[in-house]
Every structure is written in structure tokens, then in C-alpha cells.
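User: C-alpha cells for this complex, please. No commentary.
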Amino acid sequence: MFVHHCTSCDKSQLIFPSQMRGVAEDGSGLVFTCWCGAEQVWVVGDKAEQSA
Ligand SMILES: [Zn+2]
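Assistant:
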């Protein structure tokens, strides 16, 4: 699990693996559902460095 700052509820929430929905369409990160119900993307960051 990890902490993510949600852009919808504007809170830093603890996200559990059970909230994961899959990989983002562009492969930039993981899609999950926040406690507030908003769909968020957790950007992993490694890809940006590799593509540069
Ligand atoms: Zn939220």
C-alpha cells in the first residue's frame, strides 16, 4: 500500500492493493479508486526516465 494525494477530495489517503483497478491506458501508472470514489492514477515515474 502507499499514500496518494487525491485530486478529487484533496486529501492524502492510504491506498490498499484491493483498490487497484489496473494499469493506466498510456502505461504511465496504476489506476485505483480513492476512498471518495474518484478514479485516480498513481504515476510510477520509471517510464519517464526510460523514455527520455
Ligand atoms: Zn479522493
